[in-house]
UniProtKB/TrEMBL annotation:
InterPro entries for the chain: CH_dom_sf (IPR036872)
Source organism of the structure: Nymphaea colorata (pocket water lily)
Protein name: Uncharacterized protein
SUPFAM superfamilies associated with the record: Calponin-homology domain, CH-domain
């Protein structure tokens, strides 16, 4: 039927890009929320600034 061969292919580049956009959007939302709590430490990059806890 021709549909089964496409199901086994690797994800398309546009899907990977959209996943990166989703991660960056979630990171930005989380960073803004953390900074809105009024802590003395400003978080600029969630992955780098919170790496060691």
């Amino acid at each position: 039927n021709g549909f089964s061969s496409q199901a086994n292919q690797a994800p398309v580049i546009s899907e990977a890009v959209s996943e990166d956009v989703l991660v960056s959007r979630e990171e930005m939302s989380f960073r803004l929320w953390i900074n809105s709590l009024g802590n003395s430490t400003y978080i600029d990059n969630v992955f780098e600034d919170l790496r060691n806890g």
